[in-house]
Amino acid sequence: MTEGERNAQLYTVLSGWGFRYKILEDGRRQILNYILPGDLIGLQGNVMLEMQHSVEAMTRMSLCVFERDRLMTLYEKHPSLAYDITWLAAREETMLDEHLLSIGRRSALERAAYLLAFLDWRAKSTGAAAEGKAANLPVTQQHCADTLGLSLVHTNKTFRKLAGDRLIRWLDRGCEVIDIEGLRKLAGWTPPLETKRPFL
Amino acid sequence: MTEGERNAQLYTVLSGWGFRYKILEDGRRQILNYILPGDLIGLQGNVMLEMQHSVEAMTRMSLCVFERDRLMTLYEKHPSLAYDITWLAAREETMLDEHLLSIGRRSALERAAYLLAFLDWRAKSTGAAAEGKAANLPVTQQHCADTLGLSLVHTNKTFRKLAGDRLIRWLDRGCEVIDIEGLRKLAGWTPPLETKRPFL
DNA sequence: CGGAAACTTGAGTTACGTCAACTACCGTGG
DNA sequence: CCACGGTAGTTGACGTAACTCAAGTTTCCG
Questions:
Q1: Which CATH number is B152's domain given?
Q2: Is the C-beta of residue A2 closer than 7 Å to nucleic acid chain C?
Q3: Taking all residues of chain A, what is their mean pLDDT, rounded to a whole number?
Q4: Which of A24, A53, A94 sits opposite B52 (nearest CB)?
Q5: Is residue B182 part of a domain?
């Protein structure tokens, strides 16, 4: 699914990991946010005229399709589902705000710590990893670099520092969080308190 | 209105300029987005448990208050208004996405050009400035620096370059856009196409 | 066994940050 | 009327975090 396309569908993610991103003409890429089970894809495309970003899967994903035309009908017939959609949109906004703070004002080390703490939180709160147990995050350093707004080389050096301090361990294809509290403290971040989460 | 507060109200902006921001413990500040007439304030606070950011006015603002408890009722009684709220949330997301791309991947000069082109667009599309006429943006360089994720000094030097190239003129307290097309081209950005905008 | 994708490391460069000083422009009050 | 203090903007010298380039491993997979 790429930017500019007019997309008639809305999707709910049932399983798997993906991400949303934008690119400049010369290829510079910025990952905007990650997509996990329970997330909605394509709301912007339904409400705005066209998609403003692209989406890519990181693992095999299964989706539940939803027709665009039915969105207004759904709002009329099921106000509580409409409310849930708003809830999801507001949560996305909260995440984007934090990412913005991170890229704009945190140092490379803090930023990296924040990203991993954030992904760990998301992984755990969607049940992708058991609560309490160390999460194994299926990201490459290239993904992280494009999320952090850093170069690949500098991202690597930053992660090596975190690994040297025993906060994480970097695996073949992904990252294992060892000391989540350490990461959160370094980043100066704690996961947001949420009201009850909608099913969808 | 500051972060962490539990805010029972939702506001619609009738007139004036403001902005949303977050700060780290040591005072580093990141401006997340600007608030103009027609925008909604406090949706996150209503849906999440508490406000995740703070809001500050840049000019005198007039607001229309809306009680939190009535949100669910509104969703039941007026689905089209509910849809409008979703529309606004999706538009906010689109703007945050673009800011993220900007801070993460654009150079200081491109970023500055983007910000001014963006504010010019917002000013014009809310009727704060006449369409076609040069918009006068009521921002200080400190605001811009905190939006761009740059230092105040470097922001100043960047703006002086834009002024030297006759793209903008910097006034006492704010900025006058001279060559909007030049700014957009430099930033590699054009305003998004929007579907019909809701009243609210 | 070869080739691609991911990760690592060092050396040199540059964009941006910090520090510090200075100007200009108010509005306030003696 | 001028003295003042505060906010906003400007500029130069110097330091450093992050980038680029380039050359490695290592791991996976066909």
A1: 1.10.10.10
A2: no
A3: 90
A4: A94
A5: yes
Q: Are residues A124 and A158 both part of a single domain?
A: yes
Q: Which of B105, B147, B152, B193 to mutate to test the interface with A (most CBs of A within 10 A)?
A: B105
Using CA atoms, how far residue B182 sits from B144, B157, B160, B188, B190, in Å, is 19, 18, 15, 10, 11
Beta bridge partners of B33: B20
Nearest to A115 by CA among A41, A167, A40: A167
In a domain, residue A161? The reply is: yes
Q: A174 CA to D22 C1', in Å?
A: 25
The reply to whether the predicted model has a pTM over 0.90 is yes
pLDDT at A69 over 90: no
Nearest CA-CA distance, residue B142 and chain A, Å: 14
Q: Are residues B120 and B76 in the same domain?
A: no
Bases along strand C below 7 A from a protein CB: 5-11, 15-20, 25-26
pLDDT at A195: 73
Residues 26-55 of B with CB under 8 A from A: 28-30, 32, 43-44, 46-50, 52-53
pLDDT tens, residue by residue, B55-111: 999 999 999 999 878 888 999 999 999 999 999 999 999 999 999 999 999 999 999
CA B80 / C1′ D13 distance in Å:
60
Residue B56 has φ and ψ, to the nearest 5°, of -140, 145
User: Is residue A141's beta carbon less than 7 angstroms from any atom in nucleic acid strand C?
Assistant: yes
Q: Is A50 helix (H, G, I), strand (E, B) or coil?
A: coil
**Residue the block writes with tokens 């849809």:** B83
Least confident of A22-36, A165-179, B49-63: B49-63
- Protein CA B137 to sugar C1' C29 (Å): 32
Q: What are phi and psi of B27, to 5 degrees?
A: 100, -10
| Nearest CB to A188 within list B20, B25, B104 | B25
CA B22/CA B24 separation, integer angstroms = 7
Model confidence at B198: pLDDT above 70:
no
Q: List the end-to-end C-alpha distance of chain B, in Å, as a whole number.
A: 22
Q: Into how many domains does chain B fold?
A: 2
Question: b vs e for B48-87, b when ≥16 Cβ sit within 10 Å of the residue's Cβ?
Answer: beebbbbbeebeebebeebeeeebeebbeeebeebbbbbb
Q: How far is CA A109 from CA A115, A185, B173, in A?
A: 10, 12, 36
Separation of alpha carbons B151 and B153, rounded Å: 5
